[in-house]
Design goal:
The protein is an alpha/beta fold. It has three domains: 3-114, no CATH class; 118-172 and 336-428, no CATH class; 173-333, no CATH class. It is 48% helix and 9% strand. Strands 1, 2, 3, 4, 5 and 6 form a six-stranded mixed beta sheet that branches. Helix 8 crosses helix 9 (238-254) and helix 8 packs antiparallel against helix 10. The longest helix has 29 residues, at 144-172. The two termini are 23 Å apart.
């Protein structure tokens, strides 16, 4: 039994139709308003409820627990936020709860009055172990319009979650959006393996230093490769010697301290070697010194592709790393890689920027941009695709499905999910 289920029963009044409500103290109970569900904040579970007990009408808050003794286990008796609780809704009534003036807080036990059909659907949804997700038997039957709207809402939740890191970086960089973009790009150029190392690296170089040296790609390479300790090698290659010399000069000039975490090469394809990715990032800032402003102004993926259309120095045509020569091959950022940058950096940054600057938040433009990208494919997304073909239509849907799987399905948050609620309400 989850407390969320009791929230659902109270909010939607899923009681036996013929059952007259009585408090555990034996008085008649009439629910005039269940109140406002408090999902994210501390304090009672429902604010501003209105009930009638006997002949007395009460206005105040409602607290919900599995057992009445949880009131004391959670130390609500010491929290002024709970002084205005007018009803304690519980599953098991194992102890009476008192206010500070020693008067009993009326309680309502749901165990014997909950609608049996709703309880059976709850048991089936959460108690029977599924192969993939709890609603796997129902997922193919959800109405297309209902599912699409829920996935759009879930995608916005994912943008909100990604905004947490952006806002943290914005605070650390004194509201410098260019610096935030640089750090986010560093993180995402590192992908899963080197994302944290690249983010740490970005924090060791003040963005003003990057901005001052954008005209010389060798300086940008020297800064990024040097601060990641990738230049700490013995070599006879003149290009690398030049980078080492430039790095020592810049390191001394700006009093830089290298990042503590060194990037990894293990099990990476050559295209994702950290040395090459950092050289590509240097080329981006060499070509686009006003990258943030340009990205904010763009609304089309093809315009973004042009911004990241880079050309690396001759050295990189025969190298993926600094230590080994390879067959000649031009190195450019692939569209698939740029799509990842759009998904994980550019769209979240646009979303957060519009909210922070109080510009009108244009969901249509953001949705159109990410919906124009091909969907991502991984094991989490394939769960839904196997249950309902064509669910994963584009990158917006794949991002929404990732959020749905990790933040709802994997955590058994079915009663916080619109789809789970529809199953309990038998309105699939």
């Amino acid at each position: 039994m989850q407390e969320d289920f009791l929230h659902h029963v109270w909010q939607y009044q899923k009681f036996k139709s013929s059952h007259e409500l009585k408090t555990n103290q034996g008085e008649n109970l009439q629910i005039l308003s269940v109140g406002q569900h408090n999902q994210n904040q501390s304090g009672p579970d429902f604010f501003n409820a209105k009930i009638k007990i006997g002949t007395q009408t009460w206005a105040g808050n409602v607290e919900i627990h599995l057992k009445s003794s949880d009131w004391y286990a959670h130390q609500h008796e010491n929290d002024p936020a709970y002084d205005n609780v007018i009803l304690h809704v519980i599953w098991d009534d194992d102890i009476e709860i008192y206010r500070k003036d020693n008067s009993i807080i009326p309680s309502l036990s749901l165990k014997d009055i909950v609608n049996s059909d709703v309880f059976d659907r709850y048991e089936q949804l959460l108690k029977i172990k599924p192969q993939q997700i709890n609603c796997e038997k129902n997922f193919a039957n959800f109405d297309d319009f209902i599912l699409q709207n829920w996935l759009e809402r879930v995608y916005v939740e994912r943008l909100e979650r990604k905004s947490e890191l952006i806002l943290k970086l914005l605070h650390q960089n004194q509201n410098n959006w260019e610096a935030v973009l640089f750090q986010l790009l560093c993180k995402n150029f590192g992908l899963n393996v080197n994302g944290s190392a690249f983010l740490e690296l970005s924090k060791t170089i003040p963005y003003i230093v990057i901005a001052k040296h954008y005209q010389k790609i060798e300086d940008l390479e020297a800064l990024l490769l040097g601060q990641s300790s990738l230049l700490s090698i013995e070599t006879e290659t003149q290009y690398i010697k030049t980078l080492q010399q430039r790095y020592q000069y810049l390191k001394h000039k700006y009093q830089l301290r290298p990042a503590k975490e060194k990037p990894q090469f293990f099990r990476l394809r050559p295209d994702n070697f950290p040395s090459l990715r950092l050289a590509e990032l240097a080329a981006v800032y060499h070509r686009q010194p006003q990258l943030f402003q340009n990205l904010i102004a763009t609304q089309d993926k093809n315009e973004i592709y042009k911004l990241f259309d880079i050309e690396l120095p001759e050295f990189w045509k025969t190298h993926y790393s600094l230590t080994k020569k390879s067959k000649p091959k031009p190195k450019r950022l692939s569209q698939n890689f740029i799509n990842l940058l759009i998904i994980n950096t550019i769209v979240p940054l646009k979303f957060c920027y519009q909210k922070q600057t109080k510009n009108q938040l244009n969901y249509d433009n953001l949705f159109n941009l990410i919906s124009d990208l091909k969907s991502e494919h991984n094991s989490k997304v394939e769960v839904f695709e196997n249950l309902r073909p064509n669910t994963n239509q584009n990158a917006m849907y794949s991002q929404a499905l990732l959020q749905l799987k990790t933040e709802y399905c994997d955590k058994n948050y079915c009663l916080k999910c619109h789809l789970g609620k529809r199953i309990l309400n038998q309105s699939v």
